[in-house]
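Narrative of accomplishments. A recurring question from our advisory board has been how the design workflow behaves on a single, concrete structure rather than in aggregate. To address it, we present the structure tokens for one chain from the evaluation set, followed by the sequence designed for it. No filtering or post-editing was applied between the two.
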């Protein structure tokens, strides 16, 4: 979609939908929202809806960063402690590695 052709009210509504969609355990929407609306929020000349778009973009950036940190932390802990957790780790693993722990 070309945002140049969309009315400012529709941009705000779309930005809001992507922001709220991120709360449905879809943090990728926050990332997309951040990238897609960054120019609208910070680089375009001021218009009425820009302040709200800016708020949604900043919150989307923060949400994306928090999710990335959480996922990296979980993967790191799981990779380091998987062998120590024994059968519990096997139950939550999709692929069980073969070989010595």
């Amino acid at each position: 979609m070309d945002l140049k052709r969309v009315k400012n009210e529709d941009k705000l509504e779309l930005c809001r939908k992507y922001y709220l969609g991120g709360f449905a355990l879809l943090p990728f929407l926050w990332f997309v929202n951040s990238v897609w609306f960054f120019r609208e929020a910070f680089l375009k000349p001021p218009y009425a809806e820009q302040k709200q778009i800016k708020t949604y973009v900043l919150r989307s950036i923060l949400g994306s960063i928090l999710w990335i940190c959480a996922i990296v932390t979980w993967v790191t802990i799981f990779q380091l402690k998987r062998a120590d957790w024994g059968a519990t780790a096997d139950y939550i693993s999709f692929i069980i590695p073969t070989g010595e722990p």
